Fold:
Amino acid sequence: MAQQPVTQEQAAEAHRLVAQAGSVWGAAQTAGIPESTLNRRYGAAVARYGMPEVRRGKAAPARAPDAGAIVMPELPEDTAPYDELKARSIREFNRYKTAHDARRLVKLPVRMEGPIGLLATGDPHVDARGCDWSLIDAHTKLVRETEGLFATNVGDLANNWVGRLARLYAEQHVTPRETRVLIEGFFSDFGGKLLFVDCGNHDVWNGQDDLYRWLARAAASSMAWHGNRVALEFSTGARVVVNSRHDFKGSSQWNITHGPLKAAMMGDRDDIYTCGHLHAGGYQMLVHAGGEISHVCRLSSYKVLDPFKDEHGWRDQHLPAALFVLNPAAASPAAKVTVFADPQEGADYLTYLRRRHATPSLVPGGRSEVRGGGGASGRRDGVPSGLGDAARRAGADVSGGKSGRPARLGGDRSGGNLSGRGKRR
Ligand SMILES: [Fe+2]
Ligand SMILES: [Fe+2]
Structure:
């Protein structure tokens, strides 16, 4: 809204007030008029209506006798006035805060009975020549075809080279336009069961995340810049909180899960922490002093062949996906979440658990649910043991295997030399 020109009456009144107070600030205090308004009116009194300068310490400028013979018109301002700017800023802050607070913990009601699974997937880098698309295909198919299984992703959807790195397009077979086709297909291959995607650093380098977010929304998913923290709420009243980011602050050459572990120890004690970014995988269980359990996991990447990794001599620590089975009827915190490094094993266990939930007579001894506390050792029912169980037996950090396929938990905890893994990938 354009400002109204200062009338001669307004200018004269402002001039009188400033003359009495000796300064614009003093006059504004006395009269209760905003200083900016009074300053504008006083300025018009002197410059436009030819009244003398009366501010204390300000010498009246010398004016020629015919100085007021030609009057400059007061043109409309192209900048919004203070009151309008203030009102707009308050409105925008409130909009920002409402959106921000709504994402602190997003509640997701689970409208199906029994256990469900989450397949957390690592950095796709779908346009990389070293991206294992067969593995992506197998994992999306597993999600589509397994009842109760859903997916999440930790970001870096594509290399999306920018700046000096744009020279690397010469080393890959996919153009930027084709990349968008691959990402759209990647989203839709989950069959509407991809719950959320965290933005990775490669996604936000040049604002591509806006396009990816739009594609994600079209696939009934959600993509958030600073990660996703969601509470899966079951009809039993149980809930599982998943805290996922592309990366968590903090690194250690001895522990690939140091960043998310720190978040679990110093943060909200959520049930599951997932991240990616370093293209090296690992898993760790943290039992808090109060008995709560946090499952801390860093996924590696589907870009399993990586010249950047070869250049630095980093070893393979493949864990491109991990499957978390959530049991809303678990009898103990230990049985609430079971983790599998092998998605197929996890899906088999989920299917078994869902069948057992639907048919309680399948449970050995007639008990209705998993008995917790010490993991699944000694199970008599022939179910595959999960990562969580193995970790409980091992009692510590379980890094991804060095073989070409995802490690079964506890089977290969090579870890190896992780030096330099704090670098951004
Ligand atoms: Fe990455
Ligand atoms: Fe990254």
Remarks:
- Residues 123, 125, 156, 200, 202, 277, 279, 301, 425 surround fe (ii) ion (ligand 1) (CB under 6 Å).
- Residues 82-102 form the longest helix (21 residues).
